[in-house]
Amino acid sequence: MRFLIQSNLLTPATKTIEQTKRIADIPNLLSQPTNSNFHYNPDLQSLLQGKYLLLEEIPFSVEEVHRHYINGYCLYNKGVEKRRDFYCCNRCGNANQHHFASFHCARCKEICFYCRNCIMMGRISECTPLISWIGPAVVQKTKDAKLQWKGQLSLGQQRASNKMEQIIDQQSELLIWAVCGAGKTEVLFKGIEKALKQNKRVCIATPRTDVVLELAPRLQEVFPDIPVLPIYGGSEDKQLYSPLIISTTHQLFRFKQTFDLIILDEMDAFPYSYDANLQYAVQTARKPDSAMIYLTATPNKTWRKKCQQNKINYVTIPARYHKHPLPTPQFTWCGNWEKRLEKGKLPSVIIDWITQRIHSRKQVLLFIPKIAYMEKVKTIFEQWTPHLETVYAEDPFRKEKVQKMRKKQLDLLITTTILERGVTFSNIDVAVLGAENQIFTDSALVQISGRAGRKKEYPKGDIVFFHYGKTNAMTSAKKQIENSNKEAKEKGMLI
Ligand SMILES: [Zn+2]
Ligand SMILES: [Zn+2]
Fold first, then answer.
1. Which of 193, 168, 197, 164 has the alpha carbon at shortest distance from 178?
2. CA angle at 30 for the pair 46 and 122, rounded to the nearest 5°
């Protein structure tokens, strides 16, 4: 797209003529004076407010959008910004020059640079405007939204919930460090209700689509008066207005200064923890005056340090909701198991541990470091049971296999780190084969250990890290779990 410029007024040009420019080449983009008599389109308002969208993402004509621009209700923003000799993407914040590429653009008839980093959301190049809303804000009426939940919070949950309410008033930041199985979702209910009662816009963001799918119906159930909107890669109705959005961190690229309260769940999970652009997406989706809640069972070293040095408000929930201590992992040395596996064998200490459980019909969740080993390991244990499966991230039958495990139809489920979090099986034992592998970070190992003993009826479970050399990650994971148990005991949170 090219624009004709006449004294600060841009007009989409239909033909490529010399007097027109691409948006990236226009030095100052000013808004037009607001015409208060203009009858704006409320559907466009609720769609666009707090967002930066491509024209293709707006289900109204270019003429309609342009009318709003002329009357001071919309703005054309640069998608890709050229700053002297480098490029920057205004949607995803990418400024890494290796993540830009150029092509012969049919739209502007020039060599056009585009952002490769957020291309999955539609291409943004030098001639792509991002449309934003600068008219009056949607009047959100959620002051009567009521939390419909009759459950009881544990002592730890209650403390975190109170703290969250304070933070919402103060518009500051809080880290909730809750052990696996603490019941962190319930902790959020009161705070969300409070924000809604103040007509605030709330977002729960998470790196994982699975979590969006799980949380959205849960929140809808307890807040029946408002529409809860799930947003993820393939979701429909992405552009509806909702006072409570459950979104993947990726999808937040479209939002700018939108939310009064953002709750970031699993901040330590892949890919958020490794992707500066996703962190940018979350930060830019916040309003300048807003509250931010970070939620995690396994904060990384940097965050743990921040807590120790009191550089951030934080609250811990060291006990599970069922008030039993977290099962702690055992370390068992098993020699060079990879070498043995090449010959289709495994160290007897592992074989014994697993077959014992197969015989006593106690289910085992076995984590292994590489997909390539899965079939070999499976073949070995097929000698003892036909009821076993392997599962990994791209497995098309992932859901079905997890379901089979839940229904107790399997003796053994062999998995990669994909099941390290987010799943609950009752009454299982957990083993890690090759715990020394670097894929098993301390967070991963804490999460893996967190799969055992989750249910009130079966609060115990064995966890063994079979290893060929103890690592710092293993020791750190064990220490974190022991510390949580110690803290929970001191605070009287255990039965
Ligand atoms: Zn172009
Ligand atoms: Zn980008």
1. 164
2. 55
